[in-house]
Structure formats: structure tokens, C-alpha cells
From TrEMBL:
Keyword Hydrolase: yes
GO molecular function, one term: beta-glucosidase activity
Record domain Fibronectin type III-like: where: 575-645
Designated name of the protein: Glycosyl hydrolase
Keywords per UniProt: Hydrolase
Naturally occurring in which organism (per UniProt): Faecalibacterium prausnitzii
Length: 813
């Protein structure tokens, strides 16, 4: 322990008090003891520090900050160094605003294209996610503050996000859902990590000994602070025992009393509390010192320029028939689509930044060298049909050489707190596209969306450019790409399926009950499409360029590959070279191939470069559930080097020595895991994979019933509350603006009432509400009233004691 002396100066109650927040975004202040409070703030694509009343959903405005492209966008650059540069700028802005812990980046696996927060996450692939996240973390922490990679782990949907139980086998957990975190922890050493809201195989992530102690702390050597997601603590004492350091936001006296009682009754030991406190003190003292010495200003123009470069590097050119792009100087363009005037450049929720400024295509057009014949919004953003707007846009399109049509998802489609219901663009936008394509074939569709879409309408445009959610400077970046000032080089960090029903998690995403079965196991994204032979509209790693690249002279070995890449076209540009590992003769089922390395290479026309892509300890390993170890199947492996997962240009076969571990699946019938026919996986097969019966999914009336589920309870009050919430939710959807409060409350378990109300509600009161929902109407209400009075009295006494202890020690009589 590093802070033994300091810890000795605190009594048990004070120690317990330090292990939860004092306000929504600050830790507890004990400056008399030399322990200052520090501020934690979101988030991944810009600092969201709330100056006035703080809330964790971004409801109240925050201090203006640079809004960088979201992680889903920057992932398309496949450039961890760019991530690092963004991270450094984020760290600077954070420290300038006296923020000691920046709550990001988010690196959950995009299990389904419908997860409402996919725009905040990097990829469907753990290797790419981990490498990108490591870049961000290195950057953020450069000046001594802390990054907080989140949400650890297996947290890939918003429905019932605080109460859903992710059911998955250990191999899938390790190989797919944890490997990105492993990379970021080992390679970038984040000072904190955020545990996720959900349960994993029946135990909350935040109190999961296996996850936090065995894997994170023991196996990966993490010695920083684990921070709960906001309101994500269930049993605080168990959390502390099992490796969770700081409960956020401000649960009040109840959580302190709970922890203290747990020590006094022997549920946990004081040594557990001390161990966590030591981690907390290390975090608080080091990051506070870093913030103290950091400048209070930053170069907003330089950060805007970086945001623009990041957005430009991340643009993916998906289609370019007949080389319609780049546009020539002076080309007469019609600019159509509401997003050209009011960009969609970030997602909604806790990551939403109060941007310093926001560029729009319309404003930036003058500098682009293009000649505009006019602008028409073309459609109603909320999807309502509008024939007049459509007609105006079509008339405008007739007058131009080329139509720049800005389409995308509207605000409600991508938000924390709610998953998408489909992968479609709004019908009114597609009607407009069709109508325009009939009067002018030269249509360039520019897409703003933080997640993949179905594109059956591709035939109606000659070019398709995907800018994702490009941040505050995204508009200028997009024009740079459209005009050829920047050669597009982004490649998709997620598969774009032809249709949602062809995505692997479909049958077990979201769900009605408590559990979410990760039946598809390793077959997420391209791992599924390629193994099952289901073609994608745009495969993982795909992206076109204005130039072309040739790959040759592959030299390969277990330590990596070397090859020569030449820019054979006429403009300078970057190529993202991808290295996949395959074992066609594998005895142990595995995806057809997996990404294990990549390199981004910038080349002038005619230039060649020798590129080396190393392979590390993750290249050949698989998690063996029998030995409980990483093992390597010995024999031949194919190393495949390509421009996307489908466009493999060079291959080599190498021999790798194995670890001779027994086949963990010997004697088990896992036929559909062999073939990746995920829809045919039977209960028996999933149970064989899990190694235990499939847990029951039934909703129970307990502390973890969500407010939205109160309709399943036995209390008229609960039914009414759930009905009102449901109505408000539907209303906010109709308005087209996500109401984050309602979304949060709908998915919030009763227990979180005690965690999110600044101490006003205690767990005792929650238990009263549970009794009420169970049908004990009178006793339930009486219990709530009794516990409420008790809570007020105990809270007042506790706060007094905490400070009294202070005063007595300072002035002994
Ligand atoms: C989100 C986190 C965020 C936190 C604080 C939670 O609801 O899941 O990502 O960092 O709020 O705003």
C-alpha cells in the first residue's frame, strides 16, 4: 500500500465515506487531512463538465469544449496515433477545466448494429477496439490526469441496461468482450476503469470477483481505481470486497452506513476497505496534482483543426461509380438535405458535448471551390412526409451537374438509453433520393450516422460517402474529401449487413426478460458473416480510395509479416493494411479468420514502402475452458494480408507450435458452432457451450425490477407509474428528441433510486417500494415512510459525525 500513513489517520466511517462520491461528479473532500476532492467528467469525444446543476445525462448545458468525432467515427481511421492526438487534446481540455478523470473512451463490442450507444464505441472487433482505445488513453493521461475506459464489460445493449444479465461462456467473454480491455489495460495503463451496469452470468460487473479480481487485477495487473457506472452499484460492500473502488455518483449516507456495517458484521474486512482506499488516494492525489499544475487554457483553434483532420481521416468512401468523386473545382452542385444546414455530428446522452462551434456544409461551401446552384432541405428531419420540400429539392437537382445529398439518422435514432429498432434510413429521405435520382443520375449521398445501415437504395446513387458522426469540424472535413483535397482512407470498423435479419445476435438481442443470451458466441460481425458465408453489403475493413495500392513480397512468420505496399495511382493517400489469422484445419471451432494486426501507411503516388505488421501474444491463442488458460492449437496457420476482410491480397502459411492442451469440447455436440449457423443453435448446444443450464429469464419483483417493469408487479401505484413512464417515453419518441431522463428512468431498477437521489432515498425505502410492488400495499407504504424518516435522521447524524471527528482530532480538548 502506498498511503498507509494517511489511511491510519482516518476512522472507519471516514474511510467508508471516501469510497463514494460527494456530488454527481466529485469525490469527497477531506482537505483537512490532505485529501482534496477531484472532478470526474464525461466523456469520450469531448469534455462535458457541467458548470451549474450537474446531472449525468447531459440534460443541463456544460462548459463549451471541442467536440471531436465520436469513437465509432475515429475507429474508421484505424489510426491509434490519431486517437492518441485526440486523447491528448481531451486531456488538455479536461485539465484546463479542472477535471481529473475523463470518463472514456467507451470500447464495448458492437454485438448488434442496433445498440443505441454504438456511436460511442469503436468496433465489433476487440483487437481494433483495444488498439484505438489504448491510443486515446495514452493521450488523455499524458499530462497526468486519468482516463476511464468503459463499460467493463459485456455491456452491448441499452434495453434494461442497468439490470440485464449477459449470459455467455467464458471463452466468448475472454476472446471477444474482454480482449479490447486487456489491450488497453496492459498497453496504456489507464488509472481508472468503469465497471458496467449489467450483470455477467448472474453477478453484477461491479461486484464480480472473477472480472475485477481474477482477470482485471490479477491477470492483467491493473492497480488503478475501478469506478462504478453512475448508479451502477448494487451491493456496495461486495463491490469493495471484490475490487470496485469508488461508487458514483452520490449515494448519500446509506451507502456509507452499508459499508461500515459490512465491516462491523464481518461481511468484508477493514483490509478490503483499506485496499480500495489506497487505490482511491493514489488516484485523487496524483490527478489532483496534475490538474493543479496544468494550464487553464487551451488552443481551441488547434483543437478544431485536429477535429477536422480526425474527421477527414475517418471518412469512408463506400461507392464511387465511374469515379464521380472527387468533384472538380467549379463543379455546379445542388446541396440537398437538412443535415447540410444542421449537421448531425454527435450522439445523445452523457457523451454529448456543448461544442465550442459547429461547422456546417452550407457555411463551409464557399471555401470548397465548388459552385453551388442552391440549397434545399429536402425532407423533414423527423421523418414526416413533406411533398413541398421534396418538390423543391427535385427542381434544384435538375439544375446541377451533381447533387450532394446529405442523409442520415436523426437525433432520436442514436441515443444512450435506447436501442435502435431497425437499421433503416427514414422513408421520406429514401423517397427523396429516389425522386432526385430520376432527374439527375449524378447523386452523391453523404451519410451522417454513428452505426451501420441497410443500403438497398444504393442503386439510386453513384457515390456514397460515410462521414459517421464527424464532430464539430466534420462538415469541412467532408468537403475536403468530396473535393479531393483529402484522399479518403477510412475503412469500416464494423460490418454493414445487407439486412438486419442477417445479423448474428438478432434472435437474442434486447429481450423480454432479465437475461440476454450471447448464444452466437464468437460469431459477431465479420466473424459471423465470413464463417457462415453470409455476404455483407460492405464488409469489415472495407473502404475505397481515389488512388490504388499494390501489395507484394510477403514474408511471414509467427512474429509477424513484412510486405511492400505501393501507391499505384495518381494521388497521395493512405492505405490501411489488415492482417488476419486463419486456421482452416482447426479442431477447435473458431471464426474463419480474425484480425490480429494492421498498419496505416501514407504513400505519395508511385511510392513504395516496406510495411511490418507484428503479431503478439493474441495472434494464435484461444481460451480453453478445460484448462482455464490461453492455449494455442499447434499446426498450420494462414496469415492473410488484405485491404478488407474480404479483399485478401497476399497469403502465407506458417507453422506454429501448440500448447498441446486437451480439446475442451471433446464429446460435446456443438455442430452449429462449427458451422456458425447461429440461428440453429439449440438450447442443448448453448448449454453445452456454457457448461451449465441456461438460467431462467423471468422478471422478478425485487430491488432489480426496472421502473418500466412495474407493470409486472402487483401494485396499482406501480402499474400507474409504469404506464405514465411508458406514455412519456412514446411521446418523446414522437417528438423526435430523446428525453434522456425518461429513457434512463424507464430502464432503471428500483435499487438505483437509492443510488441516484443524492441520499434522499435509502435501500430500506427501496425495500418498502418492493413490498408495495409485491402486493403488500399498506405495509409497503408504511415501510417507505418509516425508512424515509430514519434516513433523514441518520444522514444528518452521519454528516455531523464525519466533521465532528475531524474537529475533535484537530482540537483535542
Ligand atoms: C453512462 C456513462 C457515463 C456516466 C456519467 C452513465 O449513464 O453509462 O457512460 O460516463 O453516466 O455521466
Amino acid at each position: 500500500m502506498k498511503h498507509t500513513e494517511l489511511i491510519k489517520k482516518l476512522n472507519l466511517e471516514q474511510k467508508c465515506a471516501l469510497l463514494s462520491g460527494e456530488t454527481v461528479f466529485t469525490t469527497r473532500d477531506f482537505s483537512e487531512k490532505g485529501i482534496p476532492a477531484i472532478t470526474l467528467s464525461d466523456g469520450p469525444n469531448g469534455v462535458r463538465k457541467q458548470a451549474g446543476a450537474a446531472d449525468h445525462l447531459g440534460l443541463n448545458p456544460s462548459v463549451p469544449a471541442t467536440c471531436f468525432p465520436t469513437s465509432a467515427t475515429v475507429a474508421n481511421s484505424w489510426d491509434p496515433a490519431l486517437g492518441e492526438a485526440i486523447g491528448e487534446a481531451l486531456g488538455e481540455e479536461a485539465a484546463a477545466q479542472e477535471v481529473a478523470v475523463l470518463l472514456g473512451p467507451g470500447l464495448n463490442i458492437k454485438r448488434s448494429p442496433l445498440c443505441g450507444r454504438n456511436f460511442e464505441y469503436f468496433s465489433e472487433d476487440p483487437f481494433l477496439s483495444g488498439k484505438m482505445a489504448a491510443g486515446y488513453v495514452r493521450g488523455i493521461q499524458k499530462n497526468g490526469i486519468a482516463a476511464c475506459p468503459k463499460h467493463f464489460a459485456a455491456n452491448s445493449q441499452e434495453l434494461r441496461r442497468m439490470a440485464s444479465d449477459s449470459i455467455l461462456d467464458e471463452r466468448t467473454l475472454r476472446e471477444l468482450y474482454l480482449t479490447g480491455f486487456e489491450i488497453v489495460v496492459k498497453e496504456a495503463k489507464p488509472r481508472t476503469i468503469m465497471s458496467s451496469y449489467n450483470l455477467i452470468n448472474g453477478t453484477y460487473a461491479n461486484e464480480n470477483e472473477h472480472l475485477l479480481k481474477d482477470i482485471l487485477r490479477r491477470d492483467w495487473g491493473f492497480d488503478g481505481a475501478v469506478v462504478t457506472d453512475w448508479g451502477g452499484s448494487n451491493d456496495h460492500a461486495l463491490g469493495v470486497k471484490n475490487g470496485s473502488t469508488l461508487e458514483m455518483p452520490f449515494p448519500g449516507g446509506d451507502a456509507i452506513r452499508e459499508l461500515k456495517a459490512a465491516v462491523e458484521h464481518g461481511k468484508i474486512s477493514e483490509a478490503d476497505v483499506d485496499a480500495r482506499l489506497d487505490e482511491l488516494l493514489e488516484l485523487v492525489l496524483t490527478t489532483h496534482a496534475a490538474v493543479e499544475k496544468a494550464p487553464r487554457t487551451f488552443d481551441a483553434e488547434a483543437h478544431h483543426a485536429l477535429a477536422r483532420r480526425a474527421a477527414a481521416e475517418s471518412v469512408v468512401l463506400l461507392q464511387n461509380e465511374g469515379g464521380l468523386l472527387p468533384l472538380k473545382a467549379g463543379e455546379r452542385v445542388a446541396v440537398v438535405g437538412d443535415f447540410a444546414r444542421t449537421p448531425r455530428y454527435q450522439g445523445a446522452g452523457s457523451s454529448a458535448v456543448n461544442s465550442i462551434k459547429v461547422d456546417s456544409v452550407l457555411e463551409q461551401l464557399a471555401e470548397s471551390g465548388l459552385q453551388s446552384v442552391g440549397f434545399a432541405p429536402g425532407f423533414d428531419r423527423q421523418g414526416r412526409p413533406d411533398d413541398a420540400r421534396k418538390a423543391e429539392a427535385v427542381a434544384l437537382a435538375r439544375k446541377a451537374d451533381t447533387v450532394l445529398l446529405f442523409l442520415g439518422l436523426d437525433e432520436i435514432k442514436e441515443s444512450e438509453g435506447i436501442d435502435r429498432s431497425d437499421m433503416k434510413l427514414a422513408v421520406n429521405q429514401l423517397d427523396l433520393l429516389e425522386a432526385i435520382s430520376q432527374v439527375n443520375p449524378n447523386v452523391v449521398v453523404v451519410l451522417s450516422a454513428g452505426a451501420s445501415l441497410e443500403t438497398p437504395w444504393l442503386k439510386n446513387c453513384r457515390a456514397l460517402v460515410y462521414g459517421a458522426l464527424g464532430g464539430q469540424a466534420g462538415a469541412g472535413a467532408m468537403l475536403d474529401v468530396l473535393t479531393g483535397k483529402v484522399c479518403p482512407s477510412g475503412k469500416l470498423a464494423e460490418t454493414w449487413a445487407n439486412a438486419y435479419h442477417e445479423t448474428p445476435a438478432r434472435a437474442h438481442f434486447g429481450g423480454e426478460g432479465r437475461t440476454v443470451e450471447y448464444r452466437e458466441s464468437l460469431y459477431v460481425g465479420y466473424r459471423y458473416h465470413q464463417t457462415a458465408g453470409i455476404p455483407a453489403a460492405f464488409p469489415f475493413g472495407y473502404g475505397l480510395s481515389y488512388t490504388s495500392f499494390e501489395y507484394r513480397d510477403l514474408k511471414a512468420g509467427p512474429a509477424g509479416v513484412t510486405l511492400t505496399v505501393t501507391n499505384t495511382g495518381s494521388v497521395a493517400g493512405a492505405e490501411i493494411v489488415q492482417l488476419y489469422v486463419a486456421k482452416p484445419d482447426a479442431k477447435i471451432f473458431r471464426p474463419a479468420q480474425e484480425l490480429k494486426g494492421f498498419a496505416r501507411v501514407f504513400l505519395n503516388p508511385g511510392e513504395s514502402r516496406e510495411v511490418t505488421i507484428p503479431l503478439d501474444d493474441k495472434a494464435f491463442r484461444y481460451w480453453n475452458v478445460r484448462t482455464n488458460h490461453w492455449e494455442v492449437e499447434g499446426g498450420c496457420y494462414e496469415l492473410r494480408v488484405g485491404a478488407s476482410c474480404e479483399d485478401i491480397r497476399l497469403r502465407a502459411v506458417i507453422t506454429v507450435e501448440g500448447t498441446a492442451a486437451p480439446n475442451p469440447y471433446e464429446g460435446k455436440d456443438l455442430l452449429h458452432y462449427q458451422t456458425a449457423e447461429v440461428r440453429k443453435i439449440t438450447d442443448a448446444e448453448f448449454e453445452a457451450l456454457l457448461g451449465r443450464p441456461i438460467p431462467e429469464s423471468k422478471i422478478k419483483i425485487d430491488r432489480n425490477m426496472t421502473l418500466g417493469e412495474l407493470s409486472h408487479g402487483r401494485s396499482p401505484l406501480g402499474w400507474a407509474a409504469s404506464a405514465v413512464l411508458g406514455r412519456l417515453l412514446r411521446k418523446s419518441m414522437e417528438n423526435g428528441k430523446p428525453d434522456l431522463n425518461i429513457l434512463f428512468q424507464y430502464n432503471m431498477p428500483l435499487r438505483a433510486l437509492a443510488k441516484m437521489t443524492n441520499g434522499a432515498v435509502s435501500m430500506g425505502m427501496v425495500d418498502g417500494i418492493v413490498m408495495e410492488a409485491q402486493g403488500f400495499w399498506i405495509i409497503g407504504l408504511l415501510r417507505v415512510a418509516y425508512e424515509a424518516i430514519k434516513n433523514v435522521i441518520l444522514n444528518a447524524q452521519l454528516e455531523k459525525r464525519l466533521h465532528q471527528a475531524e474537529r475533535t482530532k484537530e482540537n483535542p480538548a
